[in-house]
Amino acid sequence: MRKPSSELIFERSREDRFAYSLPETEVEKQNVQDILGEKFARKKKAELPEVSELDLMRHYTELSNKNHGVDTGFYPLGSCTMKYNPKVNEKVARMSGFANAHPLQDVSTVQGSLEIVYDLQEHLKEITGMDEVTLQPAAGAHGEWTALLMIKAYHEANGDFNRTKVIVPDSAHGTNPASAKVAGFDTVTVKSNKKGLVDIEDLKRVVGDDTAAIMLTNPNTLGLFEEDILEIREIVHHAGGKLYYDGANLNAIMSKVRPGDMGFDAVHLNLHKTFTGPHGGGGPGSGPVGVVADLAPYLPKPVVVKENDVYKFDHDLPQSIGRVKPFFGNFGIYLRAYTYIRTMGPDGLKAVSETAVLNANYMLRRLQDYFDTPYTQHCKHEFVISGSRQKKLGVRTLDIAKRLLDFNFHPPTIYFPINVEECMMIEPTETESKETLDAFCDTLIQIAKEAEENPEIVLDAPHTTVIGRLDETQAARKPVLKFEFLKEEKE
């Protein structure tokens, strides 16, 4: 017999147990079919577990204990910035005046909330070097799409309908070409050179009078700073295109250099990454977009403006691409990001980037003797190593990732970017201690030695998790997402 803690909630179910208690109603009971109609009424009773409140609470608590998050262990996902979320941010977001506000309230009753929105816009303009900012987009990819629609509107307003292509590096985030396609563009790939940077000669080959924009992040997805960014700017601008900045890697450069100073025309930010809003599991998120002056007329409307110390929504944007999010975006994430920015200040944000870069380079140097390092120059906030050496011994990067689970470490991003064989992409962020970084490095070094001396322990990993090795392909293509009763259980 299994322990209660290992049972599914359906297995704990016993008839006539309840997790709630409500007073008897005096209202006459009605047939559900009479209320909803034949079309919407259930044909049979819902198969829900019947448990006590205590069992219900234990069920959800046990599920949460099985999850991995930044509060429970190191989470070094490259290009995802899974940093610690300060709890003061959560306290501010839960203040009743913010948490209980309704999006349909009269503007006069939410002046404090609108002041936060306006002030956050001003801070993000300063951080990015942009002229205007919209907070509407709900996440990073949504911000990409929004910025590309603005670029498209700009070109079309100038009678330039031939600009149908967006240039994307071969190391780019997958959302870049996807967002470009959804925005109505075709994508063109520009190659990386031997240093992992944009190949300038290849860029000159693919750019032309059909170029609408180039999508870059700097530092790039390999964690390397595009040292030729000013030349890239000149090439693209000379051809009449725009530079779009993917803000996924802004954590490496805050208060050091700004996208606007590099020559970018539009930028999206991930408030739920760089600015410590929680994320994962599909949300919440927030992907504000900043633009230079010549793209500002196409901002999503409404925009929050300040007139005579009164904050209001301005709908008077005749060239706007229109609203991209119901109401005004994910306000709870604004509050968290605003609290973080005001807490840190410019010197604090600078220290964040410096520490993130220091941590990444420290780890890279500790690991370089045990794994292949395709790029040996100093990295920024993240770096890539390769398990190609271990693959020759029969141990893949996937096996290394599974073995890390036995040590309560979430694996780094693997097999991305795709232009690095057996890639592991590691981002420690600034919030982790040296002791944690050393423990992770020590574990990876141990696994590298196991691959040589005892590969079976790596190939059979994980050994300590609730379930063992999954069939990755079947889990992705045919996931089992709900409990299925066995026939005898129903009877």
From TrEMBL:
The keyword Oxidoreductase applies. The keyword Oxidoreductase applies. Its cofactor is pyridoxal 5'-phosphate. It catalyses: N(6)-[(R)-lipoyl]-L-lysyl-[glycine-cleavage complex H protein] + glycine + H(+) = N(6)-[(R)-S(8)-aminomethyldihydrolipoyl]-L-lysyl-[glycine-cleavage complex H protein] + CO2. InterPro entries: GcvPB, GDC-P_C, GDC-P_N, GDC_P, PyrdxlP-dep_Trfase, PyrdxlP-dep_Trfase_major, PyrdxlP-dep_Trfase_small. CDD domains: GDC-P (cd00613). Residues 353-453 form the Glycine dehydrogenase C-terminal domain. GO terms for molecular function: glycine binding; glycine dehydrogenase (decarboxylating) activity; pyridoxal phosphate binding. One of its GO terms (biological process) is glycine decarboxylation via glycine cleavage system. It is an enzyme of class 1 (oxidoreductase). The modification N6-(pyridoxal phosphate)lysine is found at K273. Keywords: Oxidoreductase, Pyridoxal phosphate. It comes from the Bacteria. Its EC number is 1.4.4.2. Residues 40-303 form the Glycine cleavage system P-protein N-terminal domain. GO terms for cellular component: cytosol; glycine cleavage complex. Belongs to the GcvP family. C-terminal subunit subfamily. The glycine cleavage system catalyzes the degradation of glycine. The P protein binds the alpha-amino group of glycine through its pyridoxal phosphate cofactor; CO(2) is released and the remaining methylamine moiety is then transferred to the lipoamide cofactor of the H protein. The glycine cleavage system is composed of four proteins: P, T, L and H. In this organism, the P 'protein' is a heterodimer of two subunits. This is Probable glycine dehydrogenase (decarboxylating) subunit 2. It comes from Mammaliicoccus stepanovicii. The gene is gcvPB.
